[in-house]
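quick one, 173 residues, struct below
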Amino acid sequence: MKKSGIYHFRVAIYDSETGKAGAAAKFLETPKFEKQRLWISNLTLNEIPTKKQKETLNKSSLYSNTTNRKFALPTYLSYRSVIYNAKKSGEGQTDVEVQTRLILDNRIVRETPFVKLTTADQKDPNRIDLAGAIRLDKDLAPGNYIFQLIVRDGLTKKKFQIATQWVDFELTR
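---
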């Protein structure tokens, strides 16, 4: 990308063997990295297969589709993201905390407390890989949800301490 900003990506694909076609579009925002502010990449959600599902998987289904965000309850979802530009102390340590929220109809239905992120095993301190999992039980109502990730950097100025990212998905029975 030549400049930071908002970009609209579109892709279309045609499978000549099956005659099927598909398309997708997404707006992506690229940060102004030169400003060295806390930033979170886009979130991806994947369903974690159960033992029973793993037994029936064939090699072609080992790769998950992150664009189809429709999941049947109960399920486990994994999420991934990257945190950029976390500040480091004089000893090279970070002070990054992560919180997750599950939102339905503008109402928080699940929320974790802020948890300190261990970054000692990260190769690049300017790019922190983040992965986690959430359990979605039968007690949740079917509907359109938002999964929100909130990152707080304790070493950054108060004004720039928080970064957030979200992804929407649907839960069914």
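The chain has a mean pLDDT of 86.
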